[in-house]
Amino acid sequence: MVCERSDAFASACALARAFPLFTQRSGASRRPEKKTVTVEFFLVGQDNGPVEVSTLQCLTSATEGVRLAARIVDTPCNEMNTDTFLEEIKKVGKELGIVPTVIRDEELKTRGFGGIYGVGKAALHPPALAVLSHTPDGATQTIAWVGKGIVYDTGGLSMKGKTTMPGMKRDCGGAAAVLGAFRAAVKQGFRDTLHAVFCLAENSVGPSATRPDDIHLLYSGKTVEINNTDAEGRLVLADGVSYACKDLGADIILDIATLTGAQGIATGKYHAAVLTNSAEWEAACMKAGRQCGDLVHPLVYCPELHFSEFTSAVADMKNSVADRDNGPSSCAGLFIASHIGFDWPGVWVHLDIAAPVHAAVRWTSRRRMRRGTPRSAGSCDAAAPPGGAGLFTSLCTD
């Protein structure tokens, strides 16, 4: 790889995406030995000295996270169900010396996680909330990354059609990205408290499936009237961010999800959509995208004009908008934020990656976003290539 030093990180991640791990082609199982690809970097331009060992370790951690996330999303639901996803979380936890917290099935209902439970209760494999927590000594703030982990999305009783359902194994892309990023950040020596929150469910159809008109009590204490069972991601994330706020005491909450088809219309297939209560973080996300090629563009943040789309006569809110022509991607993000509270003093960032999460039939892992995060997000000892650490991974390098 011949590149300038500032492009090394993005180039390494691009190479990682070019060699995905998952395949079920019969020829692959008959291959006598695994292939090994060795990548050598030649730096050009003014700053063309040797690559530091710490930089190489940063590249290694990031690319391993990219390939882990891509493998999870490429794997179909008959293999990557909620049970299997939990095993992936436990493997990362074991590697890092962290025992995950897991709440699942009827315990979700008992403890008030009506969003996650309501979405996943009809599936063969029960839903779960799982948390990996990195709690180093000397931490000065608490950060939570919350990932949407819908391992398959039929749409529920508001069922998707035959052309829109294929590919819905990708609906766990947010949770997969959080897992890969958490592994990379901790291995790089993240110095602040960091929680990875996984909202896992299969949005399936069965006798116990949630119906339109059902009302669920979410972990925030707010009631939600269901008018579209295919608007399920916001329900599980609402429980996740509320847990991050109430139980984990997070100062910064970032949720990431393949949330709305409208995202691809609003910001296109190359730009993730960002919605946040912080102008500083909005600018940081855009700067990060410009520096690495994982582009980001803001959505309109205007709860005083948009949140009325969820008005319900019988509950605190509905889960889907009344007018699909009125900023539906912005509104979907605001639904999640409402379960923290619009007056919450912390930083909330929402990333909708529905379109950029994949390129044709493969997951791209494009949402390992790059440098540009405010310094208050945390730091680690390992150096990162200038202009090249990811928003998740660079939460520990900037």
What would you note in describing this structure?
The protein is α/β, with parallel strands linked by helices. It has a domain of 276 residues: Aminopeptidase (3-Layer(aba) Sandwich), CATH 3.40.630.10. The protein contains 12 helices and 15 strands. It has an 8-stranded mixed beta sheet, with helices on both faces. It is globular. The C terminus is likely disordered.
Write a short abstract of this structure.
The chain has 398 residues and is of the alpha/beta class. It is built from twelve helices and 15 strands.
N-C termini distance: 24 Å
Number of strands: 15
What proportion of the residues form beta strands (DSSP E)?
15-25%
Largest sheet: 8 strands, mixed
The CATH class of the domain at 77-352 is: Alpha Beta
CATH T-level topology of the domain at 77-352: Aminopeptidase
Helicity level: 25-40%
Radius of gyration: 20 Å
CATH architecture of the domain at 77-352: 3-Layer(aba) Sandwich
The number of helical elements comes to 12
Uncertain regions spanning at least 5 consecutive residues: 365-398
Rounded mean pLDDT score:
89
Structural class: alpha/beta
Give the topology string: H per helix, E per strand.
EHHEHHEHHEEHEEEHEHEHEHEHEEE
Overall shape: it is: globular
CATH superfamily of the domain at 77-352: Zn peptidases
Which short descriptors sum up this protein?
single chain; 398 residues; alpha/beta; Aminopeptidase; eight-stranded mixed β-sheet; three-stranded mixed β-sheet; 12 helices; 32% helix; disordered C terminus; metalloaminopeptidase activity; Probable aminopeptidase NPEPL1 isoform X3; hydrolase; protease
